[in-house]
């Protein structure tokens, strides 16, 4: 068996598959229950791939004593014995509700990350170490190298269960969505910025011609504007590269980025440039609010999924007390999982699949068991009401996942990101305005990086909207000129309104969103219908001259496979206990109807 990642899609022996995973934090449970919980994930949820962080502070609390990997080696061997694959996540920072984000306390004495005011960036009251600082860089490389040599080398596929590795967490320190002014103004960070300036411009004269300034040395240049945004992108890529190389693992490497905040969308767009990561693959997480009740959360989720192909590596399936009580019911997570897949995700993760109940205060002194409070598998190993929902999703994508990924989203246009504009705050508002306008018209869209996109991919879209700004580099101007010469319509956001096409899928009744994917060569399509939390009526969706009716609960969702215009497999949520909503889940099209006999879910693979 070969495992590779192609354009964000995991391929097994050359066959693309939706990457369905569940997290199990072995370090929060007693070793004697590991086998039972892993079997529960496999048998009750249909999970074949486990994800798990390896907390540095758990394995090496003392800087003068080598890491002790006894328990994780045993855990990985058990996964292999049970036929489960693993995505290993060695940090060095993991968050995961652990003390100091999983870092050992002793690294807090190293050179800290600084914000624009010169204040340390802290986690749990301790300053976070500057990733490029010599002391931390050396100790992090030692930690990651030890993980590679002592844990992963023997456990890597095909000799063991590890098929992929994740570096860092949501940026570097769960800081991927922070403002550009939040970091890194440490001496090592600014040294990297000055080195970048010299590489980009060579001399002060070249810089001055480009910026209309009169500096005598590049060391005088302030860390701000488009160059500071570009620095953030290269800084992130550089740390990812260093940490990945330190492990030396021979499986694909992936990262998980937290979605942008509403206020700092530009900062996120300037920083997160997956095409520059040199073989390290993109993934994202959730943790932003209940999508079915919050248009801002919906927009942020869609943008994260569309930025680049890759899996959702952390969907909240278990935390209601820590985040929002809506997650006590599986409907919230089901809705968000389907939205991510409709918007472009290539897989999803159940975070976490199991509630755990045993850990030391040295690992986590802030949270009481169980962790999390309402996972699909309870802390005693029994399956909860969420389990059959996860299993239905697993079964659906096990059967149809390759075909689903082959299907292309039906879009009404594309938005062209220009990262230098994001670095000056001139891209995010335009993108959000475009997103809102397209969703109001019932249209899906593509998100393209103008510094990376090919002319062929651009030509696939009849209309391209770009943000307004002062200038674009010559290569991008030539690309856009060629696009227009080839018949494309170019719209500058804020200076014109693009004529929107009629949507191929449109919600005609009910408060909901709908997305459509169509296969390029087969008479197959997938419709995703996402009910808002306040919807109390059947949802009617106009689809190619026919009307698709979906009956789902408040905040519910449906994924429907169509073959030659007829109903095939479908997943429809009928109950949402959190919102007190229960209906006889149903879907009908062209005189054919599938429904339940009582208020419950409807799952037919």
Q: First CA to last CA: what distance?
A: 26 Å
| Helix content estimate | 25-40%
The main β sheet shows up as:
8 strands, parallel
- CA-based gyration radius: 24 Å
Number of DSSP helices? 16
Strand order of the largest sheet: 10-9-6-5-4-13-12-11
Look at the structure and give the mean pLDDT: 97
Percentage of β-strand residues: 15-25%
Assign the structural class, choosing from mainly alpha, mainly beta, alpha/beta, alpha+beta, or little secondary structure: alpha/beta
Q: What is the number of E strands?
A: 30
Extract low-pLDDT stretches.
none
Shape: globular
Pfam families: GLMA_2nd, Glyco_hydro_35
Protein name: Beta-galactosidase
Keywords: Glycosidase, Hydrolase
InterPro entries: Class_I_gatase-like, GH, GLMA-like_second, Gly_Hdrlase_35_cat, Glycoside_Hdrlase_35
